[in-house]
Fold:
Amino acid sequence: MFMLEKAIGGGRRYWIWIFSLLAVIGWGFSFYLRQFSYGLGITGLSRNITWGVYIGQFTFLVGVAASAVMVVLPYYLHNHKEFSRMAILGEFLAISSVTMCMLFIFVDMGQPTRVLNVMLYPTLHSMMFWDMVSLGGYLALNAVIALVTLNAERKGVAPPGWIKPIIVLSIPWAISIHTVTAFLYSGLPGRPFWLTAILAPRFLASAFASGPALLILLCMLLRKLTGYDVGSKAIKGLAVIVTYAMIANVFFLLMEMFTSFYSQIPSLVEHFQNMYTGMDGGSSPLLSWGRSSLVLMAVALFLLLIPRVRGNSRTLAVACAITFLSLWIDKGVCLVVCGFMPSPLGIMTSYVPTLAELSIAAAVWAIGALMITGFYKIALAVREDAFVIPTADTITPSPVAK
Amino acid sequence: MKISRKDFLRLSGLSLLAVVGKKAIGALAGKGAQSAAALPAVRVTTRWAMVIDPAKCLKEEGCTKCISACHKAHNVPTINDPRHEVKWIWKEPFENAFASQESAYTEAALQGKPVMVFCNHCDNPPCVRVCPTQATWKREDGIVMMDWHRCIGCRYCMAACPYGSRSFNWFDPRPYISELNPDYPTRTKGVVEKCTFCEERLAKGQAPLCVEACPEKALVFGNLADPKSEVRRLLDARFSIRRKPELGTHPEVFYLV
Structure:
């Protein structure tokens, strides 16, 4: 069922990888059991820093999930055939990322057994309700799309026609998941760091840089490990997307910095001081994180802007890794925590995640990695067994529009 | 009549959509906003509020009578670690409570001096707006209430509150309650809690405990909707400030200057 059998079977290296992931998951799960019985007090979170690693990872991964649209949109809407071997990989990355997002929300809850209250008492004025709707919908859309297109491919037939409108729907839906995630933050009156209309655009820009950067790295890894080649044209195309998105992201960040540093409104500027310049006469717990993210962003952008660097697969891999790392620090580490530093009462609390918290987070990442591994294994197996030799024309539904 | 599996699935899908759709339309039509805006004809007859006179409060230095009365009655745990503490009413230095209103030349009577703070029971509460389960809501008399059995512990309300008035139970609070009040519920781990303006006492016609416990009568509680109430009389007679009025939350806790 669901072609799952294709994920079972592989060489020694494959099983070592699978069991290492399972070990990380088991290790993290044991900590989660402790958190479940003791409470969130086993994390580094506190009265003033109420969200941390979990919600940071959630926010970052919504971006990775949404970024699948950067493959789906050119491929299905613009008939960009180079992406034919990549589209399914993007969709599976999205499915795995959304699952991780949901798990991160779940492990962050103080009363996880009451999670269904969100559906029992649907609250339209809460952005968290809409986030649940959009994430759940996005997961369903991508699961259906991936399953149907892959199944059709396995049988060597064209996918059914009804899948096309669903694919088209998944495009604005991808934008919506990250927009709503930004709205979680940007509508809070007492948190000036997040209270900015550019948060959603910035989220999308950083998502469309970090997600495709990860996808490029995954494709390169696949080529090395399995010989499955998405094609250098596809990689190059995606690298251009990463570059543009990174430019937009850095531009938006500079806009933010200008507004806060030039206006010198204390409630705006202090968060940016915490991250980039240091607070006057106070502690700046995020200074090294913020600065390293800035430096890495600058290096990544510099590398990406040079066509020769983008063209060479080894240097491109380096540029993508730096892009991903810089944005992970920016969004997964700093963005959430910095909003709480200082607190609305002006108190600067530092936040150090505990071993338990990091182990649980690692376990969720490992679950995502396990899913990606399994999905990619299935996708590759289907392509190897396909009755028709996969080419851009036979394995894909005809594009929706030109 | 025989229904095929496909038809059955289609029918059940449609019914589900209809149910969800009806619910969504009902909620969009303003079931959620039962405030005065939805019922313009109905006059609000009760709007509970608090007026604090910080100068009176400072008369007896180190006094914590209101805090202990409140915390004891409401089974608020005493956790000394500031990272995990739970508090309903507490002292905050003036420059923290009124962050945008202090200056290097703030009168000496206020500088560094503690001010009593608790939930502002905002007229337009952001915490209520963000709560995904309506575990916190605004009553018609203005009290921002909590349902500790519905709260899922997402702490979105804590991110939304501009006053840091909400506390989370990072672990089971019961071992930290020195003297249990059997007449009031305790909380479990993983839920948010805060001041409720002693709604359990208001229901019996009694004033909040902090008001009763204050030896200087620095806290005055009353009905803002009643022009003859003491809170209205005080606000008419003296200049008052509120915490972060620029955010549009309309706090119903006033500080006399």
